[in-house]
Write a structure and sequence with these properties.
By secondary structure, the chain is mostly helical. It has one domain. 82% of the residues lie in helices and 0% in strands. It has two helices and no strands. Helix 1 runs antiparallel to helix 2. The two termini are 35 Å apart.
Length: 114
């Protein structure tokens, strides 16, 4: 069924897939940034809290250590997500390039008489 598509349909299919790949690439880049900003804001807030009670200070210190550990544990995951984002970005560029080349090769509007 898919082999019977016209070149114009293939162009549309490649453009649609390229659009999906670029949106997913942006998602892969955005999620680590948003989550890391949240964790760093929480860490900075806990680091600047001053309590007069020693028990409260110990609780804040424990929470700060927990958030700092979570940041360190999350870094490899965020690096992998960024790498995945680069792969999807290059895939989207390749799909758009393929669509452009296919359209240039098959669309009569781009052919010069000659």
């Amino acid at each position: 069924m898919i082999t019977y598509l016209s070149p114009a349909a293939w162009v549309i299919l490649l453009q649609t897939t390229g659009t999906y790949a670029s949106i997913y690439s942006a998602y892969c880049f955005a999620i680590p940034v948003i989550r890391m900003q949240n964790l760093e804001f929480t860490r900075d807030t806990l680091a600047n809290v001053e309590a007069k009670d020693s028990r409260a200070t110990a609780i804040f210190k424990k929470a700060l250590d927990s958030v700092s550990d979570e940041i360190e544990k999350a870094k490899p995951t965020y690096i992998r997500r960024n790498l995945r984002g680069y792969v999807w970005l290059f895939l989207s560029l390749a799909l758009f390039l393929g669509a452009m080349v296919l359209q240039l090769a098959t669309d009569p509007a781009f052919r010069h008489p000659g």
